[in-house]
Amino acid sequence: MSTGVDETQTASGFGPDRFDRTVPPLRIVTATDVLAPVGGIEVCVYEDTTALVTRGHHVDLLYTESGVQRADLEILGVHLRGPVTVRFEPSRALRGLASFVRSAYRVARLRPDVLWLNRSENIIWAQVVSLLARVPLVVHLHHAPNYRLQSQLMTGVAEFVAVSEYIKSVWVARGIQADRITVVHNAVPLDRYPVATEAERVAARAALDLPDGVRVAMYFGRISRDKGVLTILQAWRSLDLDPTEARLVFVGDAASADDEIGELLRSFPEGSVAHVPNQVDVVPILHAADVVVAPSWAPESFGRTTVEAMSAGIPAIASDLGGSAEVLADGMERLLVVPGDAADLAGRLSELLTWRTSEPGLGAAVHAHVARRFPYEPHVDQLSDVLLAHRSRRRTRASQVPRGNRAVIAR
After folding, report:
1. Do 137 and 198 reside in the same domain of the chain?
2. In this predicted model, what pLDDT tens digit does every residue of 68-112 receive, in sequence order?
3. What is the dihedral of CA 224, 145, 181, 158, to 10 degrees?
4. Which residue segment(s) compose the domain that 181 sits in?
């Protein structure tokens, strides 16, 4: 997300003295498809990259397409290099491989300590670059494998980082050894997703043309069945709430090829369901919500939307699956629902839409849950440790670092 920067508070959510300058800075190369917050991975790359730079590390960020994050990244000291093609297309295999070789020589001139890949589907590009530039490769696993044989392309990877225990289990089931994967839970800088003041909440609702007294349920993401949108609509219909009492707001792409979803959307009374396009900064929209819903039918890798909402003091209802169940474990299980069960979701919505009056301490409780279980500074500490462990270890066949030999590294 595009945010301002002042002299005392950095992008990582803490001051500039966090970095221990007795440790020589790393030279890191990573890549992104687009310099814009089009998805959770792009937001994670932006936040983690700027946090690493804040700690004094040198990061070269290769990109395929420029975007709205460019200015902030440059201001924060990230070295941008592009456009660079990192996706492998079988129909253009020879041309693609030739491009990857050129990337490798370009990366070699940067003399990096580590190559940090954030999209595992781009492993062919990363392997070519890692081998030819002789730089250790760390792969950050943000999601499940994209294709059946993907794990077989991971030979020689120095270490894997998984965003949740769930994602680690998925890759282990595909053949990656468990001791090669370090779990570093995703986290968000709390200062970027602050709890709204009453004035900010009123302003956020006014900007969306929502009456101040109306209760608001909000969904972020694609309008698709697998994301639980059909379940949301069925639950909302069963509640039969007048638009003067409550509104359902979808934030994201409005298009849907699902006829049943389209029919349900058209059946609601005027004003009951609203749509807001994708935003560079979702926080002002998030502040208009009373509750966020993320009842995906498929397991989420982590549940970033849930964590963002709870950071802002807004309860988030999610499916009892995958990373979402992990996020809400240890105290917030009441926010979990059965995937695809509209009645279960309706019951939870009915309970939580009025929490500001019926349970006014819930906002502080969900914020505290995120601050305790997914603090951002330790997240960056753990990521830094993984990357630092592979400093100056030139790419060889035995590229893993034995866990027992890893020293405690000052951050």
Report:
1. no
2. 999 999 999 999 999 999 999 888 888 889 999 999 999 999 999
3. -130
4. 16-187+375-404
